[in-house]
Amino acid sequence: DIQMTQSPSSVSASVGDRVTITCRTSQGVSNWFAWYQQKPGKAPRLLIYGASTLQSGVPSRFSGSGSGTDFTLTISSLQPEDFATYYCQQANSFPITFGQGTRLEIK
Amino acid sequence: QITLKESGPTLVKPTQTLTLTCSFSGFSLSTTGVGVGWIRQPPGKALECLALIYWDDDLRYSPSLRSRLTVTKDTSNNQVVLTMTNMDPVDTATYYCAHIRGGAAFDIWGQGTMVTVSS
Fold first, then answer.
1. Distance, in angstroms, between A101 CA and closest chain B CA?
2. Which residues contact A56 (CB under 8 A, 6 or more apart)?
């Protein structure tokens, strides 16, 4: 299985801040990579696929970058609705695996 | 508009078999490129992909759970069924089904169904 190392595990930030979350895979996954947002009691929501393509309806303050083994999710200016848990995911090989999550909290 | 919804028991006893149904609309599992996945999430923990089934009957199971899982599709009724045998308390989780786009990302998710394994 491809292991996913997501960091940080939690981060505190304020509205308007720029936040970056990183994910490293144990093997190269090309750009078969996605990011999700999950709020308590809700299903995950796809934000980014193909490492950098914004899913329809997702605000442009979210962006993704990277290829191979190192990936980044950036939120350019945090909004109140962005406080949630974020997960990375690879689909280069089965089993599809997810990171352990990054909890984004209000400072 | 694509929607998915999971249904099944909320409580199962250890050693019993769990059967969950994913009912969907807005797409067909007979269309080239289409797939449905099952993902679970124990309380407070991360997501785990259990299985994928594609339009061409290609099936992928998590290696760690392969011996316990069966996934079937009913194209006529727009349903995918997950069966997991020999349930254990560690299998307590919210179980989701999701539409997979381009074989790479889950773009539409069901609301999830919480399953508790307890005697």
1. 7
2. none
What are the tokens at A91? 């689909």
Digit-coded pLDDT (tens) for A61-93:
999 999 999 999 999 999 999 999 999 999 999
Q: Which of A18, A16, A21 is nearest to A5 (CA)?
A: A21
Residue B104's pLDDT is 82
B57-90 pLDDT per residue, tens: 999 999 999 999 999 999 999 999 999 999 999 9
Q: Which residues of A touch B109 (CB under 8 A)?
A: 43-45
Which of B109, B111, B113, B114 best tests the A interface by mutation, with the highest count of A CBs <10 A? B109
pLDDT at B37: 97
What is the Cα–Cα distance from B66 to A15, expressed in whole angstroms?
Answer: 44
Question: Does B102 score more than 90 pLDDT?
Answer: no
Question: Number of helices and strands (H, E) in chain B?
Answer: 0, 11
CB contact under 8 A, A89 and B60: no
Token pair recorded at residue A93: 């090989």
Mutate which of A96, A97, A98, A103 to test chain B, going by most B C-beta atoms within 10 A?
Answer: A96
**Cα–Cα distance, B71 to B61 (Å, whole number):** 9
